[in-house]
Write a structure and sequence with these properties.
The complex is a heterodimer of chains A (474) and B (304). With 474 residues, chain A is of the alpha/beta class. Chain A has helices spanning 44-51, 74-79, 97-102, 111-125, 140-153, 170-185, 197-203, 226-234, 289-297, 321-325, 332-338, 350-363, 380-392, 410-425, 437-443, 462-473; strands at residues 4-15, 18-29, 33-37, 59-64, 67-68, 82-85, 158-162, 189-194, 206-211, 214-220, 254-262, 271-276, 280-285, 305-309, 314-317, 398-402, 429-433, 446-451, 454-458. In chain B, helix 2 packs antiparallel against helix 3 (60-89). The interface between A and B is medium-sized, with 31 and 22 residues.
Chain lengths: 474, 304
């Protein structure tokens, strides 16, 4: 079954002055998982948005099942059997699984008919969900699954997934790929947009690598290996490998401590632990209980029982950069001033704010045309470096980070890691939550695993973190 | 000099529009959708009237100041009802402020037929203010009163406050992204939002107070021909910028004064001006939509 399902030829697309795509081709076959690899900004998502009819190419041709097709909108793509799961979920939380699947359909909503279609998808691929459950009650892995089921229920046989593993734990990733494989084996075609080498290496049959809008590699997975893919993705620049900066001596000074702390949201298990000056304390957790704990630790929300001791100045980098750490419409200077705006009074010295924002831009190598540009004009990596720089600007004794490298490319993530390490070396206590266990193993001095029975500590090794996490899932 | 008088009339008409426009602008900037400037304006007018009549015989400057202060306080109080409903029961202020407009309209009706009715008890209005309790005229021979100067100064001051102070920045932050304001700025969003209600209501209340002390010299029904609603257009056309509210307030003042004059002189229906206003607002909305921008002040979809 090596029939051509999706054939993109010579696609070019310009946004203003920028060549987003320059003469890129991609051919995905039936029965296979095709990885589309590249760093952030390489043009992966743009290319697939063109394949899904969301953008029109400036030049080039698209064929689905060898038939040339003119895609004017996603509706055309869906009619041709192409479906796309976007990076951000597009579900209605208050509705049930069945209602979300039926959304956008025509005619009357008949729950039984929709439930049958969902069951049909489950039979073909093993992706199953209770049609009557409400989306609010689903975890992120199940929501991801629902996004895929929804598309398959509309009879798509070419499935485009944009960074589907970004929000999943490693166990869920394994399950997802088992189901994707079943879908491919049944004659489906999958294009997997990812910047994670591991996902591509472990699960794809073919690979296309983009770099800065250009095609650099188009090969079968059997012809490539980790190092050839790395150099294809990054170009001549050497991949930044970590592990070189382990072993900062721990200063035995307690910066923050939890003693039997519970919160309304996370409820059940009281948490007790200490954070020491100069250490990077990795945090792993399966469910979202960690989000609440991190915000209590950062002094953002109050706890309901137990005692905590935290410093007055705390840097906090939330996972949701643009909604929580930055106001997109504000300039960088204004976003700098946002920090601790609640406790400021009187007149703001905008000149000083501007200078401080400019120094963050310089020190943290934020690519921006000055401090006057809006935060929304920056790329994800630059936004994150700016947030990090701002939070570290007043040298807080404690820095709390929540998935700080999510969505960043390899180089951007490495530069964030390096700066976090540098802050730890200066004595800042770092609490680093990540849903990527490899990342935790790489950056932490020790790792705290939060599970249902409380917290457990372990050395920063992937195996032991994973094991502790799984124990809690039982 | 009829031309001067006409220009003065336009500025007189613009005065409540500027003040109420500022009320709406600051509310929208802070993410508070106060559609109740009309009710707050009436509450301010009623309180200012009561104060003026109660203090009759006292020195004029004192009476006028006291009327302005109580008017602003009454407007703030009227807005505080909506703020408290939102804080405690999560009642949408768009609904509650509109409802409170009707309450205020009928409250004024009651007052001018009951406790505040003029002594003869014939007309549904209050006694006319004594000359000393009226706002002084700044341009002799016209109706242009001190209230216009005050409105312009307040607009300039508010523009400065929004631009330069920590308070103004907090208002912008909670209006732009309450979550970021809370999470990064450690801003007490609820409390700041309550303050925005209060300041907005006070400005609208002041508009009502200045209207009775400077123009009508009495409280009666239909005192405001919808100033509080026009104020929403004034604020939106000014892109919520307090300094620009001066210009857009004067612009609407010109339109409305001109409409009255047109009707008087040429028998052209004054509703034509309303049509022009509406067309202008539609045009501004269309341009904003064409540029693909969210209009300032309109509610954004909340993140899931």
């Amino acid at each position: 079954m090596s029939e051509l399902a999706l054939d993109l030829r010579g696609i070019s697309k310009r946004f203003g002055q920028v060549d987003a795509l320059d003469d890129v081709s991609l051919a995905a076959k039936r029965g296979s998982i095709h990885a589309l690899l590249g760093e952030n900004g390489a043009g992966k998502t743009t290319l697939m948005r063109i394949a899904f009819g969301m953008l029109r190419p400036d030049s080039g041709s698209i064929a689905v099942n060898r038939i040339p097709i003119n895609l004017r909108s996603p509706a055309d793509a869906i009619a041709a059997g192409v479906g796309m799961v976007h990076q951000q979920f597009s579900l209605v939380p208050q509705m049930t699984v069945a209602e979300n699947v039926a959304l956008g359909g025509r005619g009357r909503f008949r729950p039984q008919v929709t439930a049958r279609r969902i069951a049909d998808v489950a039979r073909r691929t093993g992706l199953s969900l209770d049609p009557m459950r409400r989306v609010i009650d689903l975890g992120s892995a199940e929501r991801q699954k629902l996004e895929i089921i929804r598309i398959l229920a509309h009879n798509a046989d070419i499935l485009i997934l944009d960074e589907p593993t970004a929000v999943l734990t490693s166990r869920d990733i394994g399950e997802l790929f088992t189901q994707l494989r079943a879908f491919a084996a049944g004659g489906g075609c999958i294009v997997l947009i990812t910047h994670k080498l591991n996902d591509a290496l472990a699960h794809a049959d073919e690979v296309t690598v983009l770099r800065r809008g250009r095609l650099v590699l188009n090969a079968s997975m059997s012809e490539v290996n980790r190092s050839s893919l790395t150099s294809a993705m990054l170009g001549s620049a050497p991949a930044v490998t970590a592990r070189s900066y382990k072993g900062t001596p721990l200063r035995q000074k307690v910066v923050a401590a939890f003693n039997g702390v519970t919160t309304e949201k996370q409820g059940q298990t009281p948490l007790s632990f200490e954070v020491l000056a100069g250490e990077v304390l990795g945090v792993a957790a399966l469910d979202s209980g960690a989000a609440t704990m991190l915000r209590v630790l950062a002094g953002r929300i109050s706890h309901s029982a137990g005692s905590i001791s935290i410093p007055t100045h705390i840097g906090f980098v939330p996972e949701n950069r643009i909604g929580e750490a930055l106001v997109p419409a504000f300039s960088l200077t204004e976003n700098f001033a946002l920090k601790a705006a609640g406790s400021r009074s009187g007149v703001i010295d905008w000149r000083a704010m501007h200078a401080a924002a400019a120094s963050v831009i310089e020190d943290f190598e934020v690519m921006a045309e000055g401090a006057g540009v809006p935060a929304s004009s920056l790329s994800g990596g630059n936004q994150q470096r700016f947030v990090l720089g701002r939070e570290l600007h007043d040298d807080p004794p404690l820095l709390v980070l929540e998935n700080p490298t999510q969505g960043l490319d390899v180089n951007a993530a490495a530069s964030v890691h390096a700066r976090i390490r540098a802050a730890a070396a200066r004595g800042t206590a770092i609490v680093f939550y990540s849903s990527d266990l490899d990342e935790l193993a790489e950056i932490s001095d020790r790792v705290m695993v939060i599970n249902r029975s409380g917290v457990k500590f372990t050395s920063p090794e992937r195996q032991s973190i994973g094991q502790l996490l799984l124990e809690s899932g039982a | 000099m009829p031309e001067v008088a006409l220009v003065a009339d336009m500025l007189v008409r613009a005065t409540p529009l500027i003040l109420a426009g500022l009320a709406v602008a600051i509310a929208f900037k802070g993410g508070v959708f106060n559609i109740g400037a009309e009710g707050q304006l009436l509450a301010g007018a009623a309180a200012a009237t009561a104060t003026t009549l109660a203090l009759s015989g006292m020195p004029g400057a004192f009476v006028v100041t006291a009327a302005a202060v109580t008017g602003a306080a009454a407007g703030a109080l009227w807005a505080a009802i909506a703020a408290e409903l939102k804080r405690r029961f999560h009642v949408l202020e768009i609904i509650s402020t509109i409802m409170l407009n009707f309450v205020a309209i009928h409250l004024v009706s009651y007052l001018v037929r009951g406790p505040l009715q003029e002594p003869t008890g014939i007309y549904p209005q209050t006694e006319t203010f004594p000359l000393s309790a009226r706002l002084p005229v700044v341009l002799p021979g016209t109706r242009l009163h001190l209230g216009f100067v005050a409105a312009v100064l307040i607009a300039i001051a508010l523009a400065w406050v929004m631009k330069n102070t920590a308070w103004g920045f907090r208002v912008k932050a909670i209006g732009s992204s309450p979550r970021a304001a809370w999470s990064t700025g450690a801003i007490a969003v609820q409390r700041s939002s309550f303050m925005v209600f209060i300041v907005s209501g006070a400005l609208a209340g002041l508009a009502g107070s200045i209207e009775v002390s400077g123009v009508t010299f009495a409280l009666y029904e239909n005192l405001s021909p919808g100033h509080g609603y026009t104020a929403i257009a004034v604020a939106l056309i000014a892109a919520l910028n307090p300094a620009a509210v001066i210009a857009s307030g004067i612009f609407f003042g010109i339109l409305q004064t001109g409409a009255t004059a047109m009707q008087r002189e040429f028998a052209i229906p004054s509703s034509l001006a309303s049509v022009a206003e509406a067309a202008l607002i539609l045009a501004v909305l269309s341009v904003a939509a064409y540029r693909g921008r969210r209009l300032p002040g309109l509610p954004r979809k909340s993140a899931a």
